[in-house]
Amino acid sequence: MKKIIFVLLALFLITTSINTVRSMWDIYKKQDVLVDAKKELEKEKSENEKLKAQLSYAKTNEFIEQEARNKLFLVKEGEQEVVLDSKLLKEDSKNKKEHKENWQKWWDLFF
């Protein structure tokens, strides 16, 4: 009778020990998940602060004026609008590419 009680008690203690170790291991793994979640939270908070700063800048008159000038091609009173001909720009770029020395031009002319 004492052997049966001893064996049952031993099995109970072994089972309890295994479950305790398994629970501790699960908690340890979940702690890693918690640390990763905190890192992600900090990353998202910094991104949020960056976006708030961009939003506050986008609400300023300076930003609105800059966007109006760059995207809508608006000008202030008293300023003149300058329009560049794209053909002239292309010709200038071609002339720069085809720059030859004088002796090369003479060589091309005669030969």
Question: Could you characterize what this model shows?
Answer:
With 111 residues, this protein is mainly alpha-helical. The chain has one domain (2-110). The mean pLDDT is 87. The relative contact order is 0.03. The chain has 4 helices and no strands. The radius of gyration is 39 Å and the shape is elongated.
Which structural traits does this protein have?
mainly alpha; 111 residues; 80% helix
Overall strand count:
0
Order of helices and strands: HHHH
Instruction: Provide the gyration radius in Å.
Output: 39 Å
Please state roughly what percent of the residues sit in beta strands, choosing from under 5%, 5-15%, 15-25%, 25-35%, 35-45% or over 45%.
under 5%
Spatial gap, N to C terminus: 122 Å
Shape type: elongated
The main β sheet shows up as: none
Which stretches are poorly predicted, pLDDT < 50 over at least 5 residues?
Answer: none
Number of individual domains: 1
Estimate the helix proportion, in percent.
Answer: over 70%
What structural class do helix, strand and pairing data support?
mainly alpha
Continuous helix count: 4
Give average pLDDT, whole number: 87
The gist of it:
Helices cover 80% and strands 0% of the residues. The protein is elongated, with a radius of gyration of 39 Å. It is mainly alpha-helical and 111 residues long.
